[in-house]
Amino acid sequence: MLSSRSRSWCSSACRWAGSCASGCRSRPPRRSPRSRRTRRRRHEVLEALTTFGVSILSAVLPFVNLEVYLGLLATRLDGEVAAVVTCAVVTGVGSAIGKLVWYLLAARSMDTPWVRKKLSKESWQRRFDRWQAALDGKPWLAAAVLLAASVVGVPPLLVMALVAGALRVPMWVFLPTVTVGRAVRAWLILAGVGFALGW
């Protein structure tokens, strides 16, 4: 039998060790529900900020694969609807900001080094010329094609961002269209991977 003084000392020591060899019934302290909620919220904010940064980077630098990142992200969301929707919206906003860089470059001048380098490939130049001719003077058709490019990637959104900038498609058309389209695309990827994982 442990004396009351021994039990008191043992209980304090067990809080650090997490167990007791002397047979006392001390238990390690449990996290309160409020503490767990705070920790989860911090984790969600960190994921959202990371997703935002990766989305911008991917939109500016096409070799950064956003789809692979979203697939990996889906494995950590555990089917939480709020987290999935938040990450999808953040992806849409980040992607629109990133593509705005290409839009502004084309709107300023098609002779900038970045634009010339991207259109140096004959296939990209043909796509650009074809879509520029097809959408010139048709802002609503341009918006529809932008939306399709944002959701399914056909035609490539980078090409369409350049076309939109060259044709001076209104900013109030370009930004919301790309944001919504990319958010829908992100949600489809996250939900699709989640469905495969059996959320």
What's the N-to-C terminus distance? 50 Å
- Counting DSSP E segments of at least 2 residues, the number of strands comes to 0
Shape: elongated
State Rg: 26 Å
Count of alpha and pi helical runs: 9
Secondary-structure element string: HHHHHHHHH
The main sheet comes to: none
Level of helix content? over 70%
* Secondary-structure-derived class: mainly alpha
Chain-averaged pLDDT = 81
β-sheet strand percentage: under 5%
Regions with little confidence, pLDDT below 50 for 5+ residues: 4-13
Count of individual domains: 1
Provide a descriptive summary of the structure in words:
α2 packs parallel to α4, α4 packs antiparallel against α9 and α6 crosses α8. The chain has one domain (51-197). The protein has helices at residues 4-17, 33-60, 66-77, 81-108, 113-118, 122-135, 139-152, 157-166, 171-197. 29% of the residues are buried. The protein has 199 residues and is mostly helical.
Annotate the secondary structure layout.
Elements: H1 4-17, H2 33-60, H3 66-77, H4 81-108, H5 113-118, H6 122-135, H7 139-152, H8 157-166, H9 171-197
Helix pairs in contact: 2-3, 2-4, 3-9, 4-8, 4-9, 6-8, 7-8, 7-9
Give the key terms.
membrane, elongated, mainly alpha, 9 helices, 199 residues, VTT domain-containing protein
